[in-house]
Write a structure and sequence with these properties.
The complex is a heterotrimer. Chain A is built from eleven helices and 13 strands. Chain A is of the alpha/beta class. The two termini of chain A are 32 Å apart. Chain A is globular. In chain A, α5 (126-137) packs parallel to α6 (156-171). Chain B has two domains: 3-207, P-loop containing nucleotide triphosphate hydrolases (Rossmann fold), CATH 3.40.50; 213-274, no CATH class. Chain B has seven helices and 13 strands. A six-stranded mixed β-sheet of chain B has the order 5-6-7-3-8-9, with helices on both faces. In chain B, α2 (82-92) runs parallel beside α4 and α4 packs parallel to α5 (156-171). Chain B starts with a strand and ends with a helix. In chain B, 54% of the residues are buried. Chain C contains 14 helices and six strands. In chain C, a hairpin with a 6-residue loop joins β3 (89-92) and β4 (99-103). Helix content of chain C is 62%, strand content 9%. A five-stranded mixed β-sheet of chain C has the order 2-1-3-4-5, with helices on both faces. Chain C is an alpha/beta fold. Classes of the chains: A alpha/beta, B alpha/beta, C alpha/beta. Chains in contact: A-B, A-C, B-C. Chains A and B meet through α6, α9, β11 and α11 of A and α5, β11 and α7 of B. β4 of chain B pairs parallel with β6 of chain C, so a sheet runs across the interface.
Chain lengths: 297, 275, 362
C-alpha cells in the first residue's frame, strides 16, 4: 500500500524540554489511524513535524515521498477542532471562500451538505457544522486528511454520520489521521498510536492494546441495600482505583486482593477478573509509563 | 423522587429548550444525562440548580447552601491560586473557620492537588482545573452535586479520576447529576436519562435502557450502506430492524449504550417523519 | 486576495452594530461636538451691587447677562456670589468708581468679559469722562490655565481609568464561566456588585489624591477650601463613575462590546463636561447632555473647593445630583445583574409560572 506520510526516528526538543522523543509513524492510503493521548502528550507537535510546519531536531520526515513543502501541504486537508469556518457566513459562502482561496473555483459542494447551502453556519447544530467543515476541508481533494477530534461534543448518531463521510474519503484512497483523547472516537479507527509525554507507548488495534489487561469486577447483592457503597468506600480507602459500572464496581488490581479485602470487611460480593475496556487499558498503560525509559538521546 | 425535574417545559423566546422533561435525582446515586450538543442537557442542569425558571412543571432542589455546581466552563478563577480559590469557596459558603483548614486539606488530597496548592488556576492543566472545580463544589459537603460536561476535553487519566470523585461523592450519600456527551459514561450511572432536542428519549437504570431497545440490532460488513437504518461503527455497520427481523447476512448483536442512543434517536426521527 | 475582500464584505454586511458605529457614530459625534465647542462665550452671569447698581444695569448688555441687581448689597455679597458660582462677573458700584470682580476660574468667560468691557469703554459717547473702572480677577489672578484645568483633569483621568476597569469586571466572569458559579452560591446580587466596586473605589481614591497632589506640586495649584467637602464630592463622583462601568459590564456580552460602550460614554465627557468649554455657552440642544455627565458636577465641585474655597452649602446641587446619579446607576446595575444570571444568549420567558417546590434540608 502506498505510504502517504511518514516519520522515522523523528524527535523535537525545545531547549532542554523534549516535546517528542524519537518516533516512527506511517500513514498509508485508505487507512484511518488514530493518534490517542492526553493534551500535552505531543500529538500536536508530532503532526506539525509530519506536515513540515516544524523542523525536527533529528530524524527524517517524508510527505508524499519527499521532504515536506508548501506544494505537499496543498495536498493535505486539515480540520481543526474549532471548525475553521466563519460562523457569520452561510455554508455556500464558506464554500466559495475556501474554493477561491485554493484556486479551485470549479469544485462542487458534496451532496450531503447541499441542503444547508443558504443557512448560516451558526444556525446549524454542531454535528451539521462538523459535516460542513469536513466537506469544505475536502473541497480541494486532499490525499491526506488530518482531523483534530472530529466528533467531540456531538451525539452518537451525528458522529456516525460524520464517520460515514470519513470512511467514504478513505475508500476513495485518502489516508486519514485522527487525533483524539476520546475512547469512542479512538475505537472508530483502523489502528491506534498511543502517546504520553512525547513518547509512543504502544500501538496497534484496540484489541491489541487491550491485550490481556484485566480489571476486577465486583457485584454486590442487588445494589439497593447500599452494600455497593460500603464496598466502594472500602476499596477506595485502601488505594484501589474504583469505578462504578451500573450495578457493578470495576477496580484496577488483583482479584485475590480485592476478594480478601471485601471478605475482611464483611461484604458479600461476587468478585471476578474481566477483560479491561480500552479506557482502562489506556489508563493502566499510561500510569505504568514510569517503567518506560526513553533511549538516551 | 427526592429532587429533580418533573414535566418541565422551558423556552428561550420562540425556541423550546425542554419539552416535558423529567429527570430524577436521588441521594447516593448518580444520574447521568446523555445527549449531543444542543440536546438540552445544560438547560436541564440550569433549571435544576435554579439559574433559569421553567414555564411549567416542577423542580425540587435543596436550598443554595446544599448545592454544589460545576458549570461547563470549569468555574475556576484563573488569576487566583488553588488555595485562594478554596478560600473564596469557603467564604461564599460560610464554612465555619474551625472546619475550614481540615476540610480544605481533605479535599485537596482527594482531588490530588495537594502539591499544587499555590499554583495559579491558569497554570493548571485542563484536567487539574476540572478536578479543582469539583473540589470547590464539594468543599461545603452539598447534598446535591451537579456537573455540566465535567469530562469533555479532558485526558483519559483525569477523566477516570474525575469519575472516581463522582462515584466517591455518591457513595458518601450525595445526589449527583452529570451531563455528558460521552455515551459510554452512561454505564457508570445508577440512573440514565437520554435526551435529544429537548425531549427525553429513554430513562431508567442502565440495564433498563439496554433491555428496552426496541426491534433487533445487528452488525454488517462491506463498504455500502446495508439498509437505510444503518450507521457506521468502526470498519463495519450497525443495522437496526424496528420490526425485529434482521436482513440476511447481518449478524445479531446485543446493543451497547451507543447503539441504544442511536436507536432512540432514529426511532424519534421516524416518529416525527410519520407525523 | 479578492477572496478575502469578498468574504470581509459579506461578514460586514451582516454586522449591523459595526456598520452603525462606523457611519452613524462619527456623524453624531461631529454634530454634538460642533455645537458644544464654543470659544465665544455668549452669556456671562453678572451681579451688580452698590448704590449705582440700577444705573449700571442699564449700561451692561450682552455678553453680560445680569442675573441680580441689589443696590443694598455690599462687596462681600458680590464676592460670595462669585465664590458660589452664581455669577462670573460682579460689579461693585459706589466709592471712587465701579469695581469689576471676575471669577478667574472661568478662563474663557473672563477673557470675553475683559474684551467686552474694553469695547464698552472705547465706544462710550465721545466727550464723557472715563469712569475709573478697576478690574480685579479673583482666585486665579494671573489666569494660569493649569490651575483651572488640573482639578477637572483629575476627574477626567479617573473617568477613563474607572469606567474602563470596572466595565470588564462582570464580563470577565461571564466569559470564564465563574458568573454561573456566583449565581448558584448563596450570595446576593448586591454583595456581588458591591464586591466588584469596593476594591476599585479604594484604589481610585488613592489615585485621585495622588493626581491632585502632583498637580499641586508641579503646577502650584492652590487648595483653598474644605478637604472634607472635596472628599465627599470625590467619593460620590467615583461611585458614579465606577458604577457606570459595572452597569456597562452587565449589559455587554463580551469584552470587546464592553470597551466599545465604555469609550462611547467616556468621549462626550471630554468636551461636554465644562472642562474646556463653559456649559452655559453650549447650544441648548446639547447642553442637557452635560447635566447627565458625572464629570460636569465633579469639575464644578473640585474647581470650586480648590480654587475658590466654595462652601459646601453652595455645592448642595452638584453633590445632590451626583448622589442621585449614583443611586440610579447602582440600582440599575443590581437589577440588571439579578435578571442577567443566565448566560448571554439565553433569557427565560418573562412570565415564568414555575411551580417550584424547594425541599427543606433534612
Amino acid at each position: 500500500m502506498n505510504v502517504l506520510a511518514q516519520v522515522r526516528g523523528v524527535s523535537r526538543r525545545f531547549g532542554s524540554f523534549t516535546a517528542v522523543h524519537p518516533t516512527d509513524l506511517a500513514i498509508a492510503e485508505g487507512e484511518v489511524v488514530g493518534l490517542l493521548g492526553a493534551n500535552g502528550a505531543g500529538k500536536t507537535t508530532l503532526i506539525r513535524l509530519l506536515l513540515g510546519l516544524l523542523e525536527p531536531s533529528a530524524g527524517v520526515v517524508r510527505l508524499f515521498g519527499a521532504a515536506p513543502s508548501v506544494a505537499g501541504r496543498r495536498r493535505v486537508g486539515y480540520l481543526p477542532q474549532t471548525l475553521g469556518l466563519y460562523l457569520d457566513l452561510t455554508v455556500a459562502e464558506n464554500w466559495r471562500f475556501t474554493a477561491s482561496a485554493f484556486g479551485n473555483v470549479a469544485a462542487t459542494m458534496p451532496e450531503n451538505i447541499r441542503a444547508w447551502s443558504d443557512q448560516l453556519v451558526s444556525d446549524l447544530p454542531l454535528g451539521g457544522q462538523r459535516q460542513v467543515a469536513f466537506g469544505v476541508a475536502l473541497s480541494h481533494q486532499p490525499e491526506l486528511l488530518v482531523l483534530d477530534e472530529p466528533t467531540s461534543g456531538v451525539g452518537p448518531l451525528a458522529a456516525a454520520r460524520l464517520w460515514e463521510d470519513i470512511r467514504l474519503a478513505a475508500q476513495y484512497g485518502a489516508g486519514v489521521l485522527v487525533t483524539t483523547h476520546n475512547m469512542e472516537e479512538a475505537q472508530e479507527c483502523d489502528r491506534l498510536v498511543v502517546m504520553a509525554d512525547g513518547l509512543v507507548v504502544t500501538s496497534g488495534t484496540a484489541a491489541d492494546i487491550i491485550g490481556d489487561h484485566t480489571v476486577v469486577e465486583v457485584r454486590c447483592g442487588d445494589g439497593r441495600d447500599g452494600s455497593w457503597r460500603r464496598a466502594f468506600a472500602l476499596l477506595d480507602g485502601n488505594g484501589f482505583v474504583v469505578q462504578m459500572d451500573g450495578q457493578a464496581l470495576r477496580a484496577a488490581g488483583d482479584d485475590e486482593a480485592v476478594r480478601d479485602l471485601l471478605r475482611g470487611g464483611g461484604i458479600d460480593a461476587v468478585v471476578e477478573a474481566v477483560t479491561a475496556n480500552l479506557e482502562e487499558a489506556f489508563v493502566a498503560i499510561v500510569s505504568a509509563r514510569d517503567a518506560f525509559r526513553p533511549p538516551a538521546a | 423522587m427526592r429532587w429533580g425535574l418533573e414535566h418541565v417545559r422551558l423556552s428561550f423566546g420562540r425556541r423550546v429548550a425542554l419539552d416535558g422533561v423529567t429527570v430524577p435525582v436521588e441521594p447516593s446515586g448518580v444520574t447521568v444525562l446523555v445527549g449531543g450538543d444542543g440536546a438540552g442537557k445544560s438547560s436541564c442542569l440550569k433549571t435544576l440548580v435554579g439559574l433559569v425558571q421553567p414555564e411549567s412543571g416542577s423542580v425540587r432542589r435543596p436550598p443554595k447552601q446544599g448545592i454544589g455546581y460545576v458549570p461547563a466552563t470549569a468555574g475556576v478563577y484563573e488569576d487566583l491560586t488553588v488555595q485562594e480559590n478554596l478560600d473564596f469557596s469557603a467564604d461564599a459558603y460560610q464554612l465555619p473557620s474551625r472546619q475550614r483548614g481540615g476540610r480544605q486539606a481533605e479535599i485537596l488530597d482527594r482531588i490530588g492537588l495537594a502539591a499544587a496548592r499555590h499554583r495559579l488556576g491558569a497554570q493548571l492543566s485542563g484536567g487539574m482545573r476540572r478536578k479543582l472545580a469539583v473540589g470547590l463544589a464539594l468543599l461545603h459537603s452539598p447534598e446535591m452535586l451537579v456537573l455540566d460536561e465535567p469530562t469533555t476535553g479532558v485526558d483519559p487519566v483525569s477523566r477516570a479520576e474525575l469519575w472516581r470523585l463522582i462515584a466517591g461523592a455518591a457513595a458518601a450519600g450525595t445526589a449527583v447529576t452529570v451531563a455528558t456527551t460521552y455515551v459510554n459514561e452512561a454505564a457508570r450511572a445508577t440512573s440514565v436519562v437520554l435526551i435529544e432536542a429537548g425531549k427525553v428519549l429513554a430513562s431508567g437504570s442502565p440495564e433498563t435502557i439496554l433491555r428496552g431497545v426496541p426491534g433487533a440490532l445487528g452488525a454488517a460488513q462491506g463498504t455500502a450502506r446495508p439498509t437505510p437504518l444503518s450507521w457506521r461503527r468502526g470498519v463495519s455497520w450497525r443495522v437496526w430492524a424496528p420490526a425485529g427481523e434482521l436482513p440476511g447476512g447481518v449478524q445479531q448483536r446485543d446493543p451497547d449504550f451507543e447503539d441504544a442512543v442511536v436507536v432512540a434517536e432514529l426511532a424519534d426521527e421516524r416518529g416525527r417523519q410519520r407525523r | 486576495m479578492w477572496a478575502m475582500v469578498a468574504k470581509e464584505f459579506r461578514q460586514l454586511r451582516r454586522d449591523r452594530r459595526t456598520v452603525a458605529m462606523m457611519i452613524v457614530l462619527p456623524a453624531v459625534l461631529l454634530i454634538v461636538f460642533g455645537y458644544a465647542a464654543n470659544f465665544k462665550v455668549t452669556s456671562i452671569p453678572t451681579v451688580i451691587v452698590g448704590p449705582g447698581a440700577g444705573q449700571a444695569a442699564t449700561l451692561l448688555h450682552a455678553p453680560f447677562d445680569v442675573v441680580e441687581v441689589d443696590a443694598a448689597a455690599s462687596q462681600a455679597t458680590a464676592r460670595s456670589r462669585l465664590q458660589d458660582g452664581r455669577a462670573i462677573v460682579a460689579v461693585v458700584t459706589g466709592g471712587r468708581g465701579p469695581q469689576v470682580l471676575m471669577d478667574g476660574t472661568q478662563l474663557l468667560s473672563v477673557l470675553t468679559a475683559q474684551s467686552a468691557l474694553a469695547k464698552m469703554l472705547a465706544t462710550r459717547p465721545a466727550g464723557s469722562p472715563a469712569p475709573p473702572v478697576s478690574v480685579r480677577i479673583l482666585y486665579d489672578p494671573k489666569l494660569i490655565t493649569s490651575w483651572v484645568m488640573v482639578p477637572g483633569l483629575a476627574g477626567l483621568i479617573l473617568v477613563f481609568i474607572g469606567t474602563l476597569i470596572t466595565s470588564l469586571g462582570v464580563v470577565r466572569e461571564r466569559q470564564t464561566g465563574t458568573l454561573e458559579q456566583l449565581a448558584v452560591m448563596p450570595l446576593r446580587s448586591r454583595d456581588v456588585i458591591a464586591g466588584k466596586i469596593a476594591p476599585y473605589l479604594m484604589v481610585a481614591a488613592v489615585d485621585l489624591v495622588l493626581i491632585i497632589l502632583i498637580g499641586m506640586g508641579v503646577f502650584h495649584v492652590p487648595f483653598t477650601g474644605n478637604v472634607a467637602t472635596f472628599a465627599l464630592g470625590a467619593a460620590l463622583f467615583l461611585l458614579v463613575t465606577l458604577g457606570i462601568g459595572v452597569l456597562i459590564s452587565t449589559v455587554s456580552q463580551n469584552q470587546g462590546q464592553a470597551i466599545q460602550l465604555a469609550f462611547m460614554i467616556m468621549l462626550p465627557q471630554v468636551l461636554l463636561s465644562g472642562l474646556i468649554f463653559p456649559v452655559t455657552s453650549m447650544a441648548a440642544g446639547v447642553q442637557w447632555i452635560s447635566y447627565v455627565l458625572p464629570l460636569t458636577y465633579f469639575v464644578e465641585i473640585s474647581r470650586g473647593v480648590m480654587l475658590k474655597a466654595t462652601p459646601i452649602s453652595a455645592l448642595w446641587q452638584p453633590l445632590g445630583l451626583l448622589a442621585l446619579l449614583a443611586a440610579v446607576v447602582l440600582g440599575l446595575a443590581i437589577i440588571r445583574f439579578r435578571r442577567d444570571l443566565a448566560p448571554s444568549d439565553r433569557r427565560a420567558r418573562g412570565q415564568a409560572r414555575a411551580l417550584e417546590r424547594v425541599a427543606d434540608a433534612p
